[in-house]
Amino acid sequence: MLHEALAVRRAGAIPLIGDERWGQDQWRGVVEHATGAIIPDEAEWAALTSGSTGCPRTILRTQQSWDISYPFLDEWGELTPADTMLIAAHPVSSMASYAASHAAHTGFRFNTPVKYRMGPGDIGNVSILHGTPWHLRDLVDLLDAGHPTRIRAAFVGGDRLPQQLRHRAEHHGIRVLGYFGAAELSMVAIDDGDGLRAFPGVDLRIRDGVLWARTDQRALAVLGTGGTYRIRGAWATVGDRAVIRNGRLSLRGRSDDAIQTAGATVRPNDVEEVLASVHGVEAATVIGVPDERAGQLVVAALETDRRDTADLLERVKKNARAQLTPAHIPRRWKTTTRLPRTGSGKIRRPTPEEFEELR
Questions:
Q1: CA distance 209 to 121
Q2: Which of 44, 95, 207, 278 satisfies CB 3.0 to 4.6 Å to 89 for a cystine?
Q3: Is it the case that residue 55 has pLDDT exceeding 60?
Q4: Is residue 208 a contact partner of residue 252, using CB atoms and an 8 Å limit?
Q5: pLDDT tens for each residue of 7-36
Q6: How far apart are CA 96 and CA 274, in angstroms?
């Protein structure tokens, strides 16, 4: 699919990749919307995004808006035409199109996993990984089990990268470049182990607690309604709350996901960061569920592959009590082997109904 997208691009048309898991109605809606839209002449790539919530919107961009970031990645990863990248993200993700375009720009080869989850056969003859923290965890699990790989570096985006996962990868000799970005803005900030800092050529500022970026990587246009993407002159934002201290960026979640509980405002990202810091928690998500007295209750779901979760849950609760204010401590807990994710592999906060069904 990614090779076909590159062929479409070379032929002068604009590739847009969908998701084979969609139902007919969703396919019909996306196709009708895309083919009926007015497309700027400069558009060369298109990608669908819905972030963690909402209906897909179509992001249009130029080739140059992606190309300007590749030289930095090539230098950091010491990439050459002899390399082969494993693009682990599902093709519907803008991450996958970006990575395939990177291969075409620099001249290296790429593969994709044979199945949704990478297996031993996927990692043996590749040297670079591009994917989400979930994909990096799959890779490290395979290495822990003794399966060989030539992977020496990984580009990891799409979600928060736990430090313990970075350390596990580094133990196997894999350098990790974590990054924060958005389909509308592309590369915003990078972290090679010393905290998030602005991607070269990107200017960052905080306005009313929200992160804004000035970058030549900005999308050409966004088709569709909804979302938190806004533009003010040369600056743009996707609504992420953040703090910048000593040149390092600390993300605090989207501006529209706050939980109002008993008169207090809780940012889920603040809680998730504390919960995910406990060894054994692969990922954490926090939402608000309706409550007659408090308005909303803070509840949490932890992703873990451990069979005995009772001890893990007690350690997480103890850590939460030590680091969080009472309003931020979840009132209900669940553990699961896999949290809900978007088509691109990014953790998606469940609805209250989905939270109840987690097992």
A1: 45
A2: 95
A3: no
A4: no
A5: 999 999 999 998 887 788 878 888 888 888
A6: 30
DSSP states along 291-306:
ETTTEEEEEEEEE---
pLDDT value, residue 54: 42
Check: CB of residue 33 under 8 Å from CB of residue 58: yes
Q: Are 261 and 271 in contact (CB under 8 A)?
A: no
Q: At what angle are helices 268-276 and 310-323 packed, to 10 degrees?
A: 130
User: In this predicted structure, what is the pLDDT of residue 50?
Assistant: 56
Identify the residue with better confidence: 258 or 122.
Answer: 122
Asked whether 63 and 12 are in contact (CB, 8 A), the reply is: no
Write out the H or E segment, with its range, that includes residue 273: helix 268-276
- What is the residue whose two structure tokens read 């822990």? 144
DSSP 7-76: HHHHTT-------TTS-HHHHHHHHHHHHHSPPPTT--EEEEE-TTSS--EEEEE-HHHHHTTHHHHHHH
| Contact (Cβ atoms closer than 8 angstroms) between residue 162 and residue 276 | yes
Q: What's the whole-model pTM score? A: 0.80
Q: Using CA atoms, how far apart are residues 154 and 59, in angstroms rounded to an integer?
A: 25
Long-range contacts of 71-78 (CB under 8 A, 24+ apart): 72/199, 72/200, 73/102, 73/155, 73/177, 74/106, 76/153, 76/177, 76/192, 77/128, 77/153, 77/155, 77/175, 77/177, 78/153
CA–CA gap between residue 283 and residue 302 (Å, rounded)? 6
Q: How far apart are CA 284 and CA 161, in angstroms?
A: 12
359 is written with which tokens? 């097992």
pLDDT at 49: 78
Residue 292 pLDDT level (bands cut at 50, 70, 90): confident
Helical spans, DSSP H, in 124-234 = 133-144, 163-171
